[in-house]
Specification:
With 651 residues, this protein is α+β, with helices and mostly antiparallel strands. 38% of the residues lie in helices and 8% in strands. The chain has 23 helices and 10 strands. The protein has a 4-stranded antiparallel sheet with strand order 2-1-3-4, with helices on one face. Helix 6 (228-239) packs antiparallel against helix 8, helix 10 (301-313) packs antiparallel against helix 11 and helix 13 (355-369) runs antiparallel to helix 14. The radius of gyration is 27 Å and the shape is globular. The relative contact order is 0.13. Mean pLDDT is 78; it is low at 456-509 and 618-651.
């Protein structure tokens, strides 16, 4: 099966996908930027999806070299306007050919009905929650048009600091405990304003400290966890392991692979994220505590941790529809700054950090460790990560719903026509043919058993394993307000005065976490219940399909996990064929003969990184002739080989 993207060709590079541009001068590679005094004899482009392209310019006219190199540098590195980023012309052309309704692929969370549906689905106690309407984004431009808050909160309190300092609902556990997030209040130096903020926090505390929020744990992700700078620095080192120019470089770095991998700290960051999510789950599941995630804007690490918690605890989020809905709710509507974190506009390198890619890598660890628990495959996650850089989709190209609505509306007004028909990345038919889409779905997925109506009535779905979990001993401590025990810490955090000590970092909590974690792993997993990752050193692995797929030397022909999966699929198909053969006996001899005539499927030797396998490097004969092309003939011969050259115009 050929796995081809219908939008981006094999040798196409979108401007947003260009990471670094290098020039080769006298066999030395140098980074290219700005105006050049001397132009290179070879151009090397490193892409964000880790492809590496070589363009030889030695036999190109000097004027053409200057035009090509200067144009590529300008359009990929110069700061851009938002209107030049997204392919509005593509969306305009799509008006006459409307895309599939996006709600068929995910809950978009852009209507009240979507939020009420999610509240009902989680089986939480709805009387303690209220959907707040952010009409015209007057409350806060970073928040979506609708969001859920604890019911006692007043509208004037929500709008007092433009939505900051307000607990926002993310998800409810089966036992009624809620996962919430909160952004910090603006940092103020004026004593009068500080007092106003303190009074505001106290008012929120008095308003909210009633069931079911009387017991809550505050997790400050801004001061007690990762920073965006750590994530960006780790990934910058990590990706260099896979941006390999040639076989010689591959084997030179192979001898120090493990030391380079360890020094990048990327796998350790993944481990820390998964561990933090398990700690939150232990509070929700074992201690029956609400959890409040706190971050400066509640749009980076809050999105990451809350999403991981839901993937591990809610089997619905492990289906394709549920996972896509989760990304819409926590990331798109949650105000994650895709425009800044992916640095699409090239305006601020300081804001860049691959937080969403980190989330996908964490999910891949879970998919790799527990394949039957997920309806989607690692190929799905890989193409989703690639979609970050395809500008025909609006999904990952804005900082907030407000920014998207504002710019799309303005573009529509400028064109004086109907509203733009923006494509959603969740419609995979835009990128892949039906046969290719089958590689996104896991054939070994263990579906949730369907209950009879009599069983469903009056019952709430609970994790199948929860009754056997070694829960930590619950305390009969005095009633605490939502912020009662941690009010001082929380006020300091909300006011921007960070503390260095971990909140609730007692030995008792660590012991409870270890008991919870070990207890879960001591029993067989329930793929439609709670799902925890293995966190031990060798269990956190490199996402090979994404990072190694363009390196032929790193691939195993006929081996790896793909070979195992292929054999399993062959066995499943053989079992199905035999079942159909048995059923055919009850119908007619003709049907039996027709079934017997169909041979079983036999798979070829697939690459370990199928379906992205690059089984060999492109021949040394480059896109434009080089000195290494010894067989170079005259100009007539060169013209005959024109069809072998890659068109630089796609760059």
């Amino acid at each position: 099966m050929q796995f081809k993207n219908k939008v981006i060709g094999e040798n196409d590079i979108t401007l947003h996908c260009v990471d670094q541009i290098y020039g080769v001068f006298d066999e030395k590679k140098k980074t290219l930027f700005g105006q050049l005094k001397k132009y290179p004899e070879k151009l090397v482009i490193h892409c964000k999806d880790l492809r590496v392209f070589h363009f030889c310019l030695r036999y190109t006219k000097e004027e053409e070299v200057k035009r090509i190199v200067s144009g590529i540098i300008h359009h990929t590195q110069a700061p851009k306007l938002l209107k030049r980023l997204f392919l509005f012309s593509y969306a305009t052309a799509a008006r006459n050919n409307p895309a599939t309704d996006p709600k068929k692929h995910a809950i978009m969370f852009d209507t009240l009905q979507d939020w009420f549906r999610e509240l009902e689905r989680t089986k939480g106690n709805m009387k303690y929650k209220a959907v707040s309407v952010n009409e015209g984004y007057k409350v806060c431009e970073r928040l979506p048009a609708y969001f859920v808050v604890p019911a006692p909160l007043l509208e004037e309190d929500i709008a007092f600091f433009q939505g900051r300092g307000i607990p926002i609902w993310c998800w409810s556990c089966h036992n009624g405990c809620a996962l919430l997030k909160m952004s910090a209040l603006p940092k103020e130096q004026d004593d009068g304003m500080l007092q106003i903020q303190k009074n505001f926090v106290d008012r929120i505390y008095k308003t909210v400290h009633r069931p079911p929020y009387e017991t809550a744990k505050t997790e400050d992700l801004s001061s007690n966890f990762l920073s965006l700078q750590e994530i960006q620095m780790a990934y910058s080192k990590f990706k260099q392991l896979f941006l390999i120019d040639n076989s010689t470089e591959f084997w030179d770095t192979d001898i120090k692979w493990f030391s380079l991998l360890e020094s990048s700290s990327w796998l350790d960051i993944i481990r820390r994220c998964l561990k933090k999510a398990v700690e939150i789950i232990e509070c929700l599941e074992a201690q029956n505590m609400n959890v409040l995630l706190l971050e400066d804007h509640a749009s980076d690490l809050c999105c990451l941790i809350s999403s991981l918690v839901q993937v591990m605890m809610d089997p619905h989020c492990r289906t394709i529809f549920g996972f896509q809905s989760l990304v819409q709710k926590e990331w798109i509507m949650g105000g994650h700054c895709f425009l800044d974190r992916c640095n699409h506009l090239r305006q601020s390198d300081k804001e860049e950090a691959p937080v969403f890619l980190l989330f996908l890598d964490c999910v891949w660890q879970l998919v790799h460790q527990h394949p039957p628990a997920f309806e989607f495959t690692e190929t799905y996650l890989t193409v989703l990560s690639d979609s970050l850089y395809i500008p025909i989709f609006s999904t990952f190209f804005f900082n907030s719903p407000h920014q998207k609505d504002t710019n799309v509306g303005r573009e529509s007004q400028d064109s004086q026509s109907k509203p733009l028909n923006l494509l959603t990345v969740w419609d995979w038919s835009v990128q892949f043919e039906p046969k290719a889409q089958t590689l996104l779905t896991n054939p070994l997925y263990v579906e949730k058993p369907k209950l009879e109506k009599a069983q469903r009535k009056g019952t709430h779905f609970k994790h199948q394993r929860q009754l056997s979990l070694p829960l930590t001993q619950s305390k009969s401590s005095p009633k605490r307000g939502f912020f009662r025990e941690e009010t001082d810490h929380l006020i300091k955090n909300l006011l921007g005065k960070r503390i260095s000590k971990l909140i609730n970092s007692s030995e008792e909590l660590q012991d409870g976490f270890r008991e919870f974690y070990d207890g879960w792993h001591s029993r067989p997993p329930s793929y439609q219940g709670l799902l925890l990752p293995h966190l031990e050193g060798p269990e956190i692995k490199v996402w090979a399909q994404r990072y190694l797929r363009w390196i032929p030397e790193a691939q195993i022909l006929g081996g790896g996990g793909v070979a195992t999966m292929s054999k399993l699929l062959e066995m499943m198909e053989e079992v199905q064929r035999l079942q159909e053969k048995i059923e055919a006996r009850h119908h007619s001899q003709e049907a039996l003969q027709a079934e017997a005539a169909s041979p079983p499927r036999t798979s070829g030797r697939l690459s370990s990184l199928f379906p992205f396998a690059l089984l060999q490097r492109h021949p040394s004969k480059p896109v434009l002739p080089t000195s290494g092309w010894k067989a170079l003939g005259d100009e007539d011969d060169l013209a005959k080989r024109e069809d072998e050259f890659v068109d630089l115009g796609d760059v």
